[in-house]
Specification:
The complex is a heterodimer of chains A (224) and B (781). Chain A is an alpha/beta fold and 224 residues long. Helices cover 51% and strands 13% of the residues of chain A. Chain A has a 6-stranded parallel sheet, with helices on both faces. The longest helix of chain A has 15 residues, at 189-203. Chain B has 781 residues and is of the alpha+beta class. In chain B, the strands form 4 sheets. Chain B has a 7-stranded antiparallel sheet with strand order 1-11-3-2-6-5-4. A 6-stranded antiparallel sheet of chain B has the order 9-8-7-13-12-10. In chain B, strand 4 and strand 5 form a beta hairpin. In chain B, helix 7 packs parallel to helix 11 (304-349) and helix 11 packs parallel to helix 19. Chain B starts with a helix and ends with a strand. Classes of the chains: A alpha/beta (224), B alpha+beta (781). At the A-B interface, helix 1, helix 4, helix 5, helix 7 and helix 11 of A face helix 19, helix 20, helix 21, helix 22 and strand 19 of B.
């Protein structure tokens, strides 16, 4: 049906342990004239071996395959085939999974349930060396808030706290309750609360997490 | 001349000569056969008035010597009036006990001197005594007596009374010495009161043996109230009798006043220097209690009327004394009874017998007067006053045990019965002993000293000092002293009675005490037994309770363990089930949906032409896509696979992410470490628990807190996993009563605690209204 040279078509490798899903994906790829299916597998080790042999442009891998973890396959493939672009196929919508996968160099993350719609686009995107994230997941910001806040901390270095306030702040950052701190320092609970209010105000913090990050930056939590 | 005196001359008059005493006892003093020569006596035959016996100074009084009167007819010699009196007396029915005054006459030799004729019956004879009045008689003898009585009335005690009596008698009759004698039970006596003239020797305190006033005399004095001897130096005048009449020696002159007295007695008076003497009997209840004895150094002729008055006085003094003596005796008894009561009361208060009887007043000496008193109880001797030494007491007690069998022993001459007492006769000549227990005997012992030590006659040595063996007061006293050697003052009947009564009371007390202490001991012993039994019961009960408690605890522990186990398993099962469902949803359902989508897609390829069909297909594909998404989401909610595959940190982050998006509450997360390598990961149960707790907490925040921001800190160290969840919402009173929190919240927190408990974790909450809430979750590893 198409006159494109086989070399101009993207060489795609598929791996999925579910035969029907595999067939379906094969059909999807066959429907796209720019794509050429060069091989497939139904388990991890076979997928790795074959794909290493075939050196496809894009490898679509189901993460949860028997034998070897799909992520392992991905990693090994990326190592052994530098120009291979990997697109993982998964049921896990958890953003955590996404991060893990991206960290090893996988470029594409596609939910199985979106596969029918997005498979082609995903393949093409990662073939171009871009990150492809299934839109269903992309709405989750991947927990960057804690990290960004940490960056802010480092500019607060020169606030003056009294020795007592520092004591209470350290203990609070270490995770002790007000009652416990009061017992430790042999003072009343009200006193501890007063100190807390003071240093939180001085530091401009409103949450414990902010304090904890500050404490880390000050190196207070080494000996807790 | 004097038959009696003659007879007596054959024997030496010695004070200590028993023979003399015996003689005195047998001397016929009432029929002396002679009279005192100052008067005269006629004994008449009552019918014919013939003078049958005659004696005395008839010459002076009647004008003829006795021998000339003997056998004469009295009617011829006397006046008709006098004869009438005689006849009247003779004819009077019944014999009066005492002599009566018949008439007076002028003395033959001196018409200025009146003589009194006193008559009395003696056997069948009518005796008449004639006595000249040599001293003036008082005008009103009765008045004299009245005065005396009035003066002695005031005396209260018997002793004071006696003293008043002798004083008054001396005032009335003027004798040099008036004494009050008192007789004791053994016949001895003492001078207990005395009224003296100047320079007169005192006999006060003189004790004399019973021989001094022989039995005869004492008998006589009981019937004859008064005796006079106007001049003791007389030579007795014999009584002449008609030959055919019984001899004058048998004429009983005891009722009269002029009988001749015993020569021994006259000698005694002479030895004392006494010339005139008079004695009046003091008779109480028929017994001779004492005498009022009067001595004078020169002759005294008391007129008859005064003598009569004195006789009356003696009778009245006797009765008055009786009253006083009785009164004193009664009071003494009362005192004794009071002392007895007091002693008993004391003893009931004092546990120690001795103390109650000796230590206080009144004591045993108040009950029975003595020199000393001792208690021998349980071999211990306690004493009060003068007593023999303790070692003597022990021996004495042993002797008492052997001799005295009926509980009371008394003697006023102990050394004579118990020779060892002679060595301490000074304290124990008299002994009154009461036994107050059974065996060995305990005793109450009263001791009286040797009498001679307590009685001293204050007499001055008189002219009788060198009389050799003659009977004198000094000799009397010496004799008395001899007789009372090793003797004590006798125990009076009331005293012994009081001792008896005390003994009975003591025995009663002792018995009661023994009883009581026995009962007390028994009560104490049974009380102790009861208490011991009760104690044992309680111990047993306590044991049983402890056992039961322990069993219950064990049971409870078992049940709790089982419950925990069940809970843990339930939770685990739940999680496992969730996991299964999630995986099923993911894998099976998810895969199927994918396949459905793929199938639809393929179908779409073939149905390219028909727009409507294509549209419908697209619609169905969208439906399928949505379905897939929902299923995926549901599976994730049920159990995110991240927990198992990626670790708790990743799972928490995802949770917060998606929760924050839905609830529109911002969050901050701090993870330390940020990720745990597979080998360092926490046990699955712990990770699951942390996840579920956070899930629940976030749900609560949404439901109740109205917060803007939530902070989560997860810290995993080697020992403990700590998760702190902080919100800035409404807060609640973490320590307030449960009522303030909604049931849902309560259940929620309770559920969290339960879950944590299953893995050994704890929950601490800090919150106050308006200030948000902080949850501290700690799970030791």
């Amino acid at each position: 049906m198409t006159d494109l040279q086989p070399s101009l078509r993207l060489r795609v490798f598929l791996a999925d342990d579910h035969p029907i899903v595999l067939d379906g994906m094969k059909a999807l790829i066959a429907a796209d004239e720019k794509l050429e299916l060069v091989g497939d597998a139904v388990d991890g080790p076979t997928a790795l071996r074959r794909s290493m042999d075939l050196q496809p442009d894009v490898a679509v891998l189901d993460i949860s395959m028997p034998g070897m973890n799909g992520i392992e396959v991905a990693r090994k493939l990326i190592e052994g085939c530098p120009h291979c672009r990997v697109l993982v196929l998964t049921v896990h919508e958890d953003a955590a999974y996404l991060r893990q996968v991206l960290d090893i160099g996988v470029l594409g993350y596609l939910l199985k349930r979106s596969a029918t719609e997005e498979l082609s686009r995903g393949i093409h995107t990662v073939a171009g060396g871009n990150v492809y994230l299934d839109p269903a997941i992309a709405s989750h910001p991947t927990g960057l808030s804690a990290r960004t806040k940490r960056a802010h901390m480092e500019t607060h270095g020169t606030i003056e706290l009294s020795p007592r306030e520092i004591e209470v702040a350290r203990l609070t950052a270490a995770g002790h309750s007000t009652k416990t701190i009061a017992l430790k320092l042999q003072v009343g609970v009200k006193s501890v609360e007063t100190y807390k209010t003071r240093y939180m105000t001085k530091l401009g913090f409103q949450s414990r997490v902010e304090l904890v990050n500050y404490a880390i930056s000050k190196g207070w939590l080494g000996e807790s | 001349m004097d038959p009696v005196l003659d007879r007596a001359a054959d024997f030496p008059v010695s004070a200590v000569d028993q023979a003399v005493l015996t003689l005195c006892d047998r001397e016929p003093i009432d029929t002396p056969g002679a009279i005192q020569p100052h008067g005269a006596l006629l004994a008449l035959e009552p019918r014919a008035l013939q003078i049958v016996h005659v004696g005395g100074d008839t010459a002076a009084l009647l004008g003829a010597a006795p021998q000339f009167l003997l056998g004469e007819d009295a009617a011829r010699l006397f006046t008709a009036e006098q004869v009438v009196r005689w006849r009247g007396f003779a004819d009077a029915a019944g014999a009066p006990l005492r002599a009566v005054h018949l008439f007076s006459l002028a003395c033959a030799d001196d018409r200025s001197v009146t003589a009194d004729a006193i008559a009395y019956r003696s056997g069948e004879w009518l005796v008449t005594e004639f006595e000249p009045r040599r001293e003036p008689a008082p005008d009103n003898p009765l008045a004299v007596i009245h005065t005396v009585l009035r003066n002695i009335q005031q005396a209260e005690t018997a002793q004071a009374f006696c003293e008043a009596v002798v004083s008054e008698v001396r005032r009335v009759i003027g004798f040099d010495r008036v004494m009050f004698y008192r007789f004791l039970d053994d016949g001895s006596g003492a001078v207990i009161a005395e009224a003296l003239g100047d320079q007169v020797e005192s006999f006060l305190g003189l004790h004399y043996p019973e021989s001094d006033i022989p039995k005869q005399a004492r008998e006589l004095y009981r019937t004859n109230w008064i005796r006079v001897i106007p001049d003791a130096r007389y030579a007795p005048a014999p009584i002449l009798s008609l030959p055919d009449a019984p001899p004058g020696t048998l004429l009983d002159l005891s009722r009269g006043a002029i009988r001749s007295v015993s020569p021994v007695h006259r000698q005694y008076l002479a030895n004392m220097g006494v010339v005139a003497s008079m004695s009046m009997s003091i008779i109480i209840r028929g017994r001779l209690w004492g005498l009022i004895a009067c001595h004078h150094g020169s002759p005294r002729h008391l007129p008859y009327s005064l003598r009569e008055a004195c006789e009356l006085l003696a009778e009245m003094v006797s009765s008055q004394l009786e009253g006083r003596v009785a009164g004193e005796s009664f009071r003494a008894q009362q005192r004794s009874a009071r002392v007895h009561e007091e002693l008993l009361r004391r003893m009931s208060e004092e546990p120690v017998l001795a103390a109650g009887l000796i230590r206080f007043r009144p004591n045993l000496l108040d009950l029975v007067p003595a020199g000393g008193v001792g208690l021998w109880i349980d071999g211990q001797f306690s004493s009060l006053g003068a007593t023999p030494p303790p070692h003597e007491i022990e021996a004495m007690v042993g002797w008492l045990n052997a001799t005295a069998n009926d509980g009371v022993f008394q003697s006023d001459g102990l050394p004579l019965l118990y020779p060892p007492a002679e060595s301490f006769a000074d304290t124990a000549s008299g002994l009154l002993a009461l036994s107050v227990s059974r065996n060995p005997r305990d005793y109450l012992l009263w001791f009286r000293p040797e009498l001679v030590r307590t009685v001293n006659w204050a007499g001055r040595p008189g002219k009788t000092a060198d009389d050799g063996g003659a009977l004198t007061p000094r000799k009397s006293f010496a004799l008395w002293q001899e007789r009372v050697r090793l003797h004590a003052s006798p125990w009076l009947e009331p005293e012994v009675e009081a001792a008896h009564r005390l003994r009975l009371s003591l025995l009663e007390i002792v018995l009661r005490r023994i009883d009581q202490s026995a009962r007390e001991r028994e009560a104490a012993s049974s009380r102790q037994q009861r208490m011991t039994a009760e104690l044992n019961d309680r111990l047993a009960l306590s044991e049983r309770l402890t056992q039961a408690l322990r069993k219950e605890s064990e049971l409870r522990a078992v049940v709790e363990n089982e419950l925990s186990e069940v809970l843990r398993r339930t939770v685990t099962d739940q999680e496992v089930e969730r996991q299964r469902i999630a995986r099923e949803l993911h894998d099976t359902l998810g895969q199927s949906l994918t396949m459905l989508q793929l199938g639809l897609q393929a179908m779409g390829q073939e149905v390219s032409a028909d727009d409507r069909l294509r549209q419908r297909l697209i619609g169905i594909k969208d439906l399928a896509a949505n379905l897939g998404r929902d299923v995926s989401r549901l599976a994730w909610e049920i159990r995110p696979t991240a927990i198992d595959d990626l670790g708790i940190q990743a799972a928490i982050e995802s949770l917060l992410d998606s929760w924050s998006e839905i609830s529109l509450v911002k969050y901050e997360l701090h993870l330390s470490p940020e990720e745990s390598p597979r080998e360092m990961r926490l046990p699955k149960a712990v990770e699951t628990t942390l996840y579920r707790v956070l899930q629940e907490t976030l749900t609560n925040v949404v439901r109740h807190a109205e917060a803007h921001k939530v902070g989560v800190i997860l810290n995993i160290s080697e020992e403990v996993a700590t998760m702190i969840v902080e919100d800035d919402g409404r807060g609640f009173d973490a320590h307030g009563p449960d009522i303030e929190r909604t049931p849902a919240r309560r259940l929620g927190l309770l559920g969290i605690r339960e879950r944590l408990a299953l893995v050994g974790g704890t929950l601490e909450i800090e919150s106050s209204p308006g200030q948000g809430a902080t949850l501290f979750i700690r799970i030791p590893i």
